[in-house]
Each structure stands twice: as C-alpha cells, then as structure tokens.
Amino acid sequence: MTALLEARGVTKRFGGLAAVSDVSCTVAEGSVTAVIGPNGAGKTTFFNCISGVAPPTSGEILFRGVPIARRAPHKIARLGIARTFQNIRLFRSMDATENVVAARHCRTGAGILDCLFRTRSERAEERNSRDIAAELLEFTGIGRWAASPAGSLPYGDQRRLEIARALATEPDLLLLDEPAAGMNPKESLDLVELIRKIAARGITVVLIEHHMKVVMGISTHIVVLDHGEKIAEGPPDAVRNDPRVIEAYLGKEDVS
Amino acid sequence: MTPFRAVLRVLLASAVAFAISIPFASVRSTAEAGFTFDLRPAGTIAGVVAAAAILGELVRLAGRYLGPGAPRDARPPFALPAKARGAALAAAALLVALVPLWSGSGTVTMATEAMIFAVIAVGLQITIGMAGLLVLGHAGFWAVGAYTYGLLTIHLGWSFWPAMAAGGVAAAAMGFMVGLPALRLRGDYLAVVTLGFGEAVRAVLKNENKWTGGDANLPSNLVPGQLRGVQGEIGQWIWQPYGTPGRNGDYECYLTALGLLALCIFSVVRLARSREGRALFALREDETAAKCMGVDTVRTKLLAFTSSAMWAGLAGALTAVQRDSLNPELFDFNTSILFVAMVVLGGLGSVAGAVLGAGALWILPPLLQDWFEDITLYRPLVIGALMAGMMVVRPEGLLGSRSRKAAG
To answer: For residue A19, what pLDDT is reported?
Structure first.
C-alpha cells in the first residue's frame, strides 16, 4: 500500500494556541483511517488543514506526492479530496438532488456562455450530473428524499446527504467529520455498512469519530490526537491498549 | 393549498388593507370643507389589494414550478405542450408590444419605466437573491450606465446601440471593481461598502459639472433637446426600413425596454438553472461547503457582481434615452433601497418575483394616486410597512422558494 496522503509536521495556531501541533502521519491508499481523541484535541482543525478551509500555519501536506497545504479549497476538491462537516453544512433550501448536483461543480466545466445557450455539451453534462445524483442518493439510502429540501430531511439522513454530496465530487480521499454524531445505535450500524460500501468502491476514507463501536468496527488504522499532538498511531488493537491513549481518555491512574 | 384557504387569504388581505387605508385614504382635511370622510378610496384600495392577492395566489401556484428550487425539467400540470407554449408566448409578446398603439402616452411612459426597473430588479436578483450578497448601492451602477450613455451620445456623438452597449460594459466594469474589495466582506459590511459606492457615484456626478452638468442636469443645460434627438435614432433603426414614423420616440423606448427585459429574464432564468447559477445558490446557502465542493468563490462572486451591474447599466442607458435629462439625485440611496425592496418583495432568487416586485412598487402607487393624492410621497412609508409585513407573513417573498419555511 502506498501513501495517498502524507502530513509532515502540520501545525495550526490560533494566536498563542496550537490547535494542531506538529502532526505527522500517512494515510495508506484504500485504508479506512480513524482520527480519534478527546473533545478539543484538534481533529476537526486537522481536517480543515487538509481540505484547505483553514490552511496550516506550518508543515506540509502531500496528496499523491503533491503539496497542497496552501491551496484553495476548491482546488483541493478538484484534486480529489472531499469532506463532510461535523455541524451539518448542507445547502438547506435546495432539494437533495440539487445539493448533490451542485457538488458536481468541480467535475463539470460548463462556462457562463454554455449555460446561457444551453449547448449540447452543457445539456449532456447536466443529464450526466442528474444521473449521478440519483445513483448516489440511492447508494446512500436516501433516494426517497430526492425532491425534498435538504433542510427538511431527518437528522440522520442529512448526514447521509452530506456523504452523497461529497461523493459527487468523485473523491479519491473522503474525510468524514463525525458522521455518526447524534445517531442511535441502529443508525450507526447502518452507517458502518455505508462506509464499508464506500471503501469497497476504492475510496480511501479518513473519519473523525467518537463512537468506539464505529471506529473499531471499520478502521484499519487509527491516529490518536490529544491537545493537538499525535499521541499514538497504529492498528485498532494496538491503539486500544496503548497506555497513553487510555490516559488521554480516562486520566492518569491514581497511585495512592 | 386548498382553494378554501386561498380564498380566506385573499379576503383577509383585502380586509386588512381596507382597515389600514381608512385613516389616511378616507379622511381628508381641506381648508374649505374641514374634515371629510369618504369610504370609497379605502374600498378601492381594498379592491386593488384583493386583485393583487388573487394574482398572488395564482403566481404562488406557478411559483412551485418556477421558483428557484424548482428542478429544471419541472412542468406544471396545466402546462401547454411546447409548441403551443411558444405560440402563446409569442402572441402575448406581440400583444404587449402593440399596447402603446392605443394606450395613452402616460401609460406608455410608466410601463417603460416599470420594465426598466424590472430589468434592474432581475439583474439585482443575481447578487442579492442568488448569491446572497446584499448590495445597497445598485443605483450607482444604474447611474454609471445612464451617464456613460448620455456623455457618449452628447459629447462624442455616439449613436444609440453602441452607446447603450458601452453603458452596460462600463457598469459591468464598475461592478467588477466594486466586487474586488467586496470579496473579503460579508453581510452588513458588504452592504455598507456598496452603499458607499452608490453615494460616491452620485457625489461625483453632482460635483463634476464640466461634463455631466452636475446638479443642473446632464443634457438640458449643455445641449438642450439633444437626448430627444438621440431618441429618434432608435425609431430610425426600427422604423426606417418600413417607412413608418415613431411617435415621439416613446414607442421605440417602450419596445427596446420590452426587448431588454425579455433578454434579461431569459438569460437570468437560464443562469439560475445551470451550473453557474447553482454555484451562486450554493454560495448563498453555505460558503464553506460550496468551496469544498469545488466552487471558486472569488470567480463566482465577481461573476455575480459584474453581470448584475451590467443589467443595471443597460437599463440606465434606456433611462437616459427615456428621460429628457439626467439628474444625479435620481440615483440616490432611496432608489437603491427601492431596488432591494423590489427583489425582497418578489422573493429572493425568483426571477418572476423580481418582475412582479418592480411592477408592484413602481406602477401601483401612481395608479392609486387618483384616490389618494399624496401616495407617491408616502412611497417610502408604504414600502417600509410592506417589507416589515412581508418579514412576518411571508419572509420568502411573493414568489420565493417555500422550502426555507419547510426547513424551519
């Protein structure tokens, strides 16, 4: 397995606070990598660094060997990195299909004149995008909401729509920010199934997650952050028994 | 959407209008007769509101298929087949084009103005409605178009079409330039910057009196009657091949405004339902998410500013033709607010709504003037009340997407 994504000493400072501090890790192609850690450990900030939403203060990020650390988010999306958001960020008043079609932006090229004259290529592109959207809504199990405004979907299905939208950008790397947040056990189980299906499509997945059942169920590799620093990394079993991880989650053992 | 509830809404609207209009439409004080009381004006207003409400219910139905969220291939159940629709549209356009032949010149002027405003409102829909960028100085772009046209024709002797195109280009360029610094701003801050731009344009036009005539109007002082002469040129272009004289230039103006409006509606509707339009809507809904889906926000915002300003500029050129003279005060802050009101009233993101809003806010007050003498003076008050009422009753605008409501 080769490294699809490589972080080298990634640091993100907000004033005096280092939200992410000197984190280096690699994500192997085809893997499902989980980023875990207590609240405020810098997991989402790390995602923001990768996706270009909040570029790192220092350090470098390589995607297929190409440095992306200071590129604009839309360029990173075009390279093949897609993400979802912890606090759902759907285009709320657009319907589910439109949400997914909108995400096709980085894989379509119709310019303003194509749009005004509805050229043959523009029409073909639109048709193709709609087909892809329909397919992705079915794939994520929310086909019945195709014509409903995104904001009116049930909570769990909004998270699924976020995933469908991210998939529409045809990513090689999918970043999922707490996809199971607020889901009940049954929904979480279904989500694990969905992530497996996504991985089976050959898409590398990195996910931030608190549900340990989800994490242990699907990840092949785990990175643990605490106070912005990487404290452990490895296969699930090794990480689970790592004393530093236990300490971060449960606190230091009292000797007395 | 039951018919019963629709009827109820219409009745309620006219009842409220009746109640509100009694104090200031029915009570009048004159020096000779003292206070007089006449219920008829209030009744008329209630009638007009009822008619508007019925129209509103119809367009609300249509809005489900024409609204911003409607999929591109959605067709209402009562839609005609494509060919019949084309024929009906052509017939309607022809009818509208022929209206001035039998209507009075006052009506023609007012209709022309309303259509010019509709062009501006539809154009403004791109920035405010679609991209969610609040622009409070749109009159500035209108002024740039109008004065570009006026200066080119009067000082350099340009003819109508090239000068009009130049008005559009100049306003578009100005839109681009205002858009550049505005890229870093959002919401209120952006609104303040654009407001400042609008006022700056007015101040420049007012104080630069060598070319623009400043406060003393553009052409009337410099070359009297020049614009009227220019106006004849459209007539030449349209009528000369057929040997039919135009009527004082008003009809040509009307036709040109109609054509411009049709072109504007056509292109903005197409924009709204295309890749670029979707990027604009995505930007309005969530900028961060839009970025992560590959939308180049800089390019998309500049596109919105530039194209929106271009329509205002083209409309401005027509305004310059239509009026005898240009005065900087025409392009003041109140006018910018009026434009925003047209867009908000009609519904954010809805093209049909913008046309409706422009028509309602420009044509209704003069129509009501017969019964209520000073209504044009009260226009700001009425608009303010209308906006406040809309925010409570129907925040998405007359023809806006209903989905935001569903979102809670």
So the answer is: 93
Task: Work out the burial of residue A120: count CB atoms within 10 Å of its CB; fewer than 13 is exposed, 13-18 middle, 19 or more buried.
Answer: exposed
A1-80+173-178+207-256 CATH, one of 3.40.50.300, 3.40.630.10, 3.40.1010.10, 3.40.50.11540:
3.40.50.300
Q: By residue range, what is the domain housing residue B231?
A: 104-382
**A95: closest CA among A52, A130, A44?**
A130
B405 lies within 8 A of chain A by CB: no
- Of A149, A115, A148, A150, which Cα lies nearest the Cα of A129? A115
Identical fold, A1-80+173-178+207-256 and A86-170 = yes
Give the position of tokens 């100085």.
Answer: B137
CATH code for A86-170? 3.40.50.300
**Residue B342 distance to chain A (closest CA, Å):** 21
Record: contact A74-B406, CB cut-off 8 A? no
Residues B354, B124: contact at Cβ < 8 Å? yes
Domain ranges of chain A: 1-80+173-178+207-256, 86-170
Residue with structure tokens 């004159």?
B30
What tens-digit pLDDT sequence spans chain A (256 residues)? Answer: 578 999 999 999 998 889 999 999 999 999 999 999 988 899 999 999 999 999 999 999 999 999 999 999 999 999 999 999 999 999 998 999 999 999 999 999 888 888 888 899 999 999 999 999 999 999 999 999 999 999 999 999 999 999 999 999 999 999 999 999 888 889 999 999 999 999 999 999 999 998 888 898 899 999 999 999 999 999 998 988 888 888 888 777 665 5
Q: Could you tell me if residue B203 is inside a domain?
A: yes
Structure tokens at B9: 């809404």
A106 to chain B, closest Cα gap in Å: 4
Q: Is B77 an interface residue toward A (CB < 8 Å)?
A: no
CATH (domain of B174):
1.10.3470
Q: What's the number of domains chain B is made of?
A: 1
